[in-house]
Amino acid sequence: MGNIIFRKIAEGLPGLDMKLKQAGMFEKPEDFVKKTFLSAFYMTTGVAFVVGTLLAKLNVVMGALYLVFPVLFIVMFLYFIKLPDARINKREREISRELLYVTRHLIIEMESGVAIYNALVNISKNYPTMGKYFQEIITKVDMGTPLEDALNETIEITPSANFRKVLWQIINSLKTGADITLSLSAVVDQIAREQVIEMQNYSKKLNPLAMFYMILAVIIPTLGTTMLIVFSSFLSIELNFITLMIICCFLAFFQMIFLGIIRGSRPAMEL
Fold it and tell me: What is the C-alpha to C-alpha distance for residues 40 and 76, in angstroms, rounded to an integer?
């Protein structure tokens, strides 16, 4: 019965099977949904236990905790179900950091008269991220799969659109016999222009983000905590250690989110 429910949930998530493959998570969609359900349940239970213990020490009524539990579980489940998207985004950024170097390396190899198979072997040994994709291609070819089919299979599971463009150019050159270096050079120029535009847009966003970080994550928390302590002394409000720790944890969590936003907006490229 439980597996049927998980299978129905997986069927209601379009493209989950392909997302799992692109994320490098080679498991059935229903198994992933089941694992996500259990992870959300354990996480919600742990948070509810910690919060309930804290509320009990503060002599606060815990009835609201029973209402918050299902809401927190749904939030946790929706958060964990997005794990493939997060991994796809991470993989795409890792590929983007190496793509220009790999493509230029391939062009140099081909201009030097190296066979396409040997060029792919050399690339698989010199690049930690994209080398894994090319190593899979080489392994499939060694096991008898035609090179074009191996490239097509990699196109299906790669999360990077630019990487797919490079592989398509290789396949077209294998089919037509055209000079691969000319088509790849055009792709390299296009990718380089896109990365320059991304870097320019990032530089425009960085100054406002830094200003908001200073205001929301440094100035306001510092002054707010100081004013809270001062006002509590005038109003005879007791600020114990637990309350101050809650404030510190909230501020630390907020700063981690803000730094994650800044880090995530940075273009995926090596300068």
Answer: 5
Neighbouring residues of 143: CB distance < 8 A, sequence distance ≥ 6: none
pTM of structure: 0.72
Taking the C-alpha atoms of residue 41 and residue 200, their distance in angstroms, rounded to an integer, is: 43
Phi (first) and psi of residue 39, to 5 degrees = -65, -45
* CA–CA distance, 100 with 218 (Å, rounded to integer): 38
Tokens of 171: 């396949």
Domain ranges of the chain: 2-81, 88-193, 204-264
Q: Catalogue the E-assigned strands of 54-123.
A: none
At 194-203, the pLDDT tens digits run: 878 877 777 7
Q: Which fold has domain 88-193?
A: Receptor-associated Protein (1.20.81)
Residue at 245: amino acid letter:
M
H/E stretch holding 108 reads: helix 83-111
Among the listed residues 24, 23, 28, 25, the one whose alpha carbon sits nearest the alpha carbon of residue 11: 28
Angle at 24 (CA atoms; ends 140, 6), nearest 5 degrees = 120
| Angle CA 174–180–116, to nearest 5 | 60
Q: What is the pLDDT of residues 201-244, one digit of tens each?
A: 777 777 777 777 777 777 777 777 777 777 777 766 666 767 77
Cα–Cα separations (whole angstroms), residue 108 to 114, 115, 153, 271? 9, 12, 25, 20
Q: What is the dihedral of CA 95, 97, 102, 108, to 10 degrees?
A: 160
d(CA 5, CA 31): 11
d(CA 118, CA 54): 62
Q: Computed over its alpha carbons, how large is the radius of gyration of the chain?
A: 26
